[in-house]
Amino acid sequence: MNQKTPPPRSTSTHRVDLVRRIDLITLRLFIAICEERNLTRASQREAIAASAVSKRMHDLEQALEVALFERHPNGMALTPAGQSLLHHARVTLLNVEKIAVDMAEHARGVRGHVRMLANLSSIVEFLPDDLPGFFRSHELVRLDLQERPSADVVRGVEEGVAEIGICSADVATRGLERFSYRRDRLVIVVPSDHPLTRASEVSFADTLDYDHVGLFATSSIYLRSQYTAQQIGKSIRLRVHVPGFDAVCRMVQAGMGIGLIPDRAFEVLSHGMELSAVPLRDEWADRELVLVARDPAGLSATSHLMLAHLRSPSVSAH
């Protein structure tokens, strides 16, 4: 009697089987191996026997039907499939952490949580004015706000670290949805008796004969100023990098050089410091900040409310 060949499993059946065979412990161990580049060190870090870790990785590769690692005498390297799984594993564990945090907050009576990444300009210049109106209407919502350079804001929203981001419009936002938020203009901060104060406005080229106090090297303001100097054929006479606009003002006050910051930040931070702000004439000094999100329709209810508030005419009119 001829034995019939069993029919191939459907794609949906295969997916269900795969989900059942991949657990959070295995994903955590996989990430540990990727970060340590060594199975033994990963097992020590996670306090699990190396043989058990090795078996889990073998079973994971069998379940996925792909090789995740290239095994070498001095360690383990990821295959392209492994690189892809690493991204998904990190997002998965991050989402599980978010579930735990959200449930704990509901247990404490906090109704909703918004995670936002924003560049320094938006945090110093605009969010202190724009957020209180939101929280007057949503008192039990909690905001987790982290400051990052604009490029890292985009990357963080892409990877699911936050649902909403605010960054410079000059930065490539790739597949994210973007919405206009606010505008500012860059100014040169100088001591009140500096020669540049004689002009009503200056070009960035006019500043390159003076020492500069620069923002951190990954800030969009510093990167743009450096690019402009290269286009002119000069270099910035940088004396010091500092982490924020307040530090720029303090260093300028101390005679370390002149600095480039947004006009609103100067208004907020410069009181009593005997500093002046000279508007920058260059076209790129007029800047736009944008809101970004992966999928506005897929935002949590509280994040959707926050995005709608920051896009509202009452905010943009400030």
Give your account of this protein's structure.
By secondary structure, the chain is α/β, with parallel strands linked by helices. Helices cover about 45% and strands about 20% of the residues. It is built from 13 helices and eleven strands. α2 (about 25-35) packs across α3.
Biggest pleated sheet: 9 strands, mixed
Oligomer description: single chain
Report the count of strand segments.
11
Task: Round the Cα radius of gyration to an integer and report it.
Answer: 26 Å
Low-confidence stretches: 1-6
Order of helices and strands: HHHHEEHEHHEHEEEHEHEHEEHH
Record the SSE blueprint:
Blueprint (H helix, E strand, L loop, with lengths): L10 H11 L2 H13 L2 H8 L3 H15 L4 E4 L2 E4 L1 H28 L5 E6 L1 H6 L1 H11 L4 E6 L2 H9 L5 E5 L8 E15 L19 E5 L4 H13 L4 E6 L2 H9 L4 E5 H7 L5 E5 L6 E8 L7 H11 L1 H4 L2
Parallel strand pairs: 3-4, 3-5, 7-8, 7-9
Antiparallel strand pairs: 1-2, 5-11, 6-9, 6-10, 6-11
Helix pairs in contact: 2-3, 2-5
